[in-house]
Amino acid sequence: MTIAGQVSKVEVLKKESRALRGGLAEGLADGRPAFDEDGYNLLKFHGIYQGYDRDSATERKQSGLDKIHQLMVRTRLPGGRLSAAQYLALDAVADRYANGTLRITTRQTIQFHGVVKAELKQTIAALNRALVTTLAACGDVVRNVTTVPAPIRDAVHARLDEDARRLSQHLLPATRAYHEIWLDGEQVAGVQEDRPEEDALYGTTYLPRKFKIGLAIPEDNSVDVLTNDLGIVALFEDGVLQGYNFALGGGLGMTHNKPKTFPRLATPVAFVAPDDLLDAAAAVVRLHRDHGDRGNRKHARLKYLIAERGEEWAKAQLEAYLGKTLEYPREVPRFEVVDHLGWHEQGDGLLYLGLPVASGRIADRPGESLHTALREIVSRFGCDPILLPSQDILLSNIAPENRAAIDEALRGHGVIAVGDVTPVRRWSLACPALPTCGLALTEAERIQTPLIDAVEERLARHGLIDERLSIRITGCPNGCARPYAGDVGLVGRMPGFFALYVGGDFAGTRLSFNLVDKLAENAVPDTLDVLFGLFADSREAGEGFGDFCHRLGRGALLSALAQSARKAS
Ligand code: SRM
Ligand code: SF4
Asked: From CA 102, how far away is CA 237, in angstroms rounded?
């Protein structure tokens, strides 16, 4: 419980941290395998999470051994854009300092797992040598800005790319602590040297909680724009930017059985003119900074403020920060989600290729050496990777004459051809969960492949194998793989059990609802089988699975499940 006016411990820590320095330099040098609690909390602002190997923890404890402490390091890559040289540098970091894998996140960046404290400084330095920062990849600040991934060479995509970079740069904390601690004062990627240490935007206490920005166009909502604290929808007419609809207060984290916490999609608040983008985005950040709950971190996201105070209030606040009135949001066309996988033309004579990556884990596995294949292709053909919010990867700037050789290299490394991946596998997402995530209640990434195998079998039974369907799996209700925004969400409930969510839409404009609260992991495929059967029999023309579940509603779906259970017994 929070006493009115009382701030949380993290607020005190931020305030006393001297612009995010705290005791990190001393902690780094103390020879211990892990940072203390204050270090743990401050590290996040530097893009680092301290955790431990959960697989071995219990057994080690029983044997009187300490946990295996490990760090996760997250980069900040606006719009997921990397040059070939940067990708190769990241690839080398994965092998030299992490667990030999690169993990594409649902926010278009790369994470490394398994870094040890003794090599943390070298890891961060190696990333920065490739001009990749980790500053503000996590923490109570604006995180990685996401945008439409397709490298189409037209005015619309060029503008989105540029806007994502400008937003990211404009909203970076001004602290020099990052390069003092990790880079011995050297120039850092993403940090503006000419900005004073005084942080006009973040002050000394930063934001009450994390803050996310997504930038989309209605024609391509692959970033799930409405799940962001600030969802920006750019509106173009004949390739000319008209301005941006600002939707505020999206966010998915919740706690089971705590109805005061809930997922929410951002709601439209104002229309912003092209020249006002950066100031207006900063105004939304200031709104969160000044009015967000600093006493209860479970109630501190912008979404609670918008849900409680309303869009009119938010609009008036933004107008006060900006000193001008804002238009009401404009009508937007229906959202679409574009499939970027496979070969596509960029529009400048070059090609790009989208490759599926199961739960974003770029790794070599028996029979499929994706990690090696990507390294070889990127270094041989110089193609620049782009990371997708669907945890997949695009290789851009490919000369058409190299297409056959790239296909051949992929085949040679056993990488499954895009055309052979079913839509359900292609669109599934899974968060890391066990063994790295300290908050996981269940598996997610490690059960994704077997679960999708089983689901494919059920879909095939009903003639639905070519159906476009998104299944999103998370190990807890925090929602890192956006499980409440797709057709089907499986949300870790307790070890071996998931909450089943259905009824969201593919385009990310409607949240799903909880259909079954505690479903045993091994009962998931057969439960979906019943719903797929119903869908195959009684869907309307052109209706997606999420839309179908939404139309039928919880009651009808539950009675179908009950009827099927009676038949089986
Ligand atoms: Fe997340 C916390 C992984 C996207 C909501 N998230 C975590 C941590 C850092 C666990 C922790 O706090 O100890 C996870 C690290 C696991 C590990 O082992 O690496 C983690 N989140 C991820 C990633 C890697 C999942 C993935 O499969 O890719 C994504 C990294 C994104 C990035 O590059 O920045 C990731 N997290 C998301 C998203 C989706 C999105 O942003 O599009 C959400 C839902 C949207 C939202 O923010 O509400 C999300 N993560 C959370 C929350 C719930 C926040 C809340 O408001 O309650 C937490 C827990 C927290 O912050 O306390 C969390
Ligand atoms: Fe961890 Fe939960 Fe996020 Fe999965 S959803 S990565 S289990 S915090």
From this structure: 38
